[in-house]
Specification:
alpha/beta; 267 residues; LpxI_C_sf; LpxI_C; Cytidine Deaminase, domain 2; five-stranded parallel beta sheet; LpxI_N; DUF1009 domain-containing protein
Length: 267
C-alpha cells in the first residue's frame, strides 16, 4: 500500500485529504502541529503530534515509517508559529540561516530541509484537484457591472499585496480598498472591513504571482462565507485554477440564502 505523510495545520483541508486518500487505498500518516486541529484527524490510527519547530524529529519520524512523500495542509497562522514554537537542534540551525521570517522564506527552508533528507513535498492539491476554483459564478446571485469594477480593483490590490508576502485577501467597496490582510488572517480581515465600511463589501482572495502549489494554496470555505455573511458582504471572489473552494455545496447554499455571490475568476 502506498504511504503518504501529512503535516497537519488547522482547518478542514487535511480531513478532505484523508477522505480522498481512503477512497484510493492510500495509507496516510497525519502529523499534527497544534492542539486545535480537527478531532477526527487526531482519532486517525496513524496520528502523531509534534511542535512546528521540531523539524529534525519530524523528518526522523517520517523516514522511520518508510515515508518519502508528504503534503503540508491546513492553516498555520504566523502569530501562532512564533508564540508557541519549540525548536529542536535542527530547527534552531534552520532559523539562524534565514535572511528574514517571511512566510515563503520559512516554508521553502523547511521544504529544502525535507528534500535534503530524502522527503519530497507534493502539491497541496494532490488528490484534491476537484476542489479547485473554476472560472464561473457559483451562485444565482451574480455581480453587477459596478461590482466588477470593484472586483478589478480588488484583484490588482490583492496581487500587489501578495507580492510583498503580506497577505492574499483584500476587501473592497464602491471601487475602493477597505482592508488589506496582515498577520491576523482572512477571517479577521473581513471582520475589520465590516467594522470600517459596513455592509456591501466584496472579499477578493488571490494566489501569489509565483504561487508554489506545495505551500499555502489560498482557500475559501464555509467559515469564510460565514464571516462575509456576518458583515453583510456583497460577494466573494477567488482565483480560478489556483485556489481551493472547500465545503462547496454548503458554502453556495449559505451564500444564496444571504444574497451573496461567489465568483471564480481566471486572472
Amino acid at each position: 500500500m502506498k504511504k503518504v505523510g501529512i503535516i497537519v495545520g488547522n482547518g478542514k483541508l487535511p480531513l478532505y485529504f484523508l477522505e480522498e486518500a481512503e477512497k484510493q487505498n492510500i495509507d496516510v500518516f497525519p502529523l499534527g502541529l497544534f492542539d486545535t486541529i480537527d478531532d477526527r484527524i487526531k482519532a486517525h490510527k496513524n496520528f502523531v503530534s509534534f511542535n512546528i519547530g521540531e523539524v529534525g524529529s519530524i523528518v526522523k519520524y517520517f523516514l522511520l515509517n518508510g515515508i518519502d512523500e508528504i503534503v503540508m495542509l491546513g492553516k498555520v497562522e504566523k502569530d501562532i508559529i512564533f508564540k508557541d514554537m519549540k525548536l529542536d537542534r535542527f530547527g534552531e540551525e534552520l532559523l539562524k540561516r534565514l535572511p528574514d521570517r517571511k512566510d515563503e522564506t520559512l516554508l521553502f527552508a523547511v521544504i529544502g530541509f525535507f528534500r535534503l533528507n530524502g522527503i519530497k513535498v507534493l502539491p497541496q492539491n494532490h488528490l484534491l484537484k476537484n476542489f479547485m476554483f473554476r472560472d464561473e459564478c457559483y451562485t444565482k446571485i451574480v455581480p453587477s457591472d459596478e461590482d466588477r469594477k470593484t472586483i478589478k480593483i480588488g484583484i490588482e490590490a490583492a496581487k500587489a499585496l501578495s507580492e510583498v508576502d503580506a497577505g492574499q485577501t483584500v476587501v473592497c467597496k464602491d471601487s475602493s480598498v477597505v482592508a488589506l490582510e496582515g498577520i491576523e488572517g482572512t477571517d479577521k480581515t473581513i471582520k475589520r472591513a465590516g467594522e470600517l465600511a459596513g455592509s456591501g463589501c466584496i472579499v477578493v482572495k488571490m494566489s501569489r504571482p509565483q504561487q508554489d502549489m506545495r505551500v499555502d494554496i489560498p482557500a475559501v470555505g464555509i467559515e469564510t462565507i460565514k464571516r462575509a455573511v456576518e458583515i453583510g458582504a456583497r460577494g466573494i471572489v477567488g482565483e480560478a485554477g489556483r485556489m481551493l473552494f472547500l465545503n462547496r455545496d454548503e458554502a453556495i447554499r449559505l451564500a444564496e440564502e444571504n444574497s451573496l455571490f461567489i465568483l471564480g475568476i481566471k486572472v
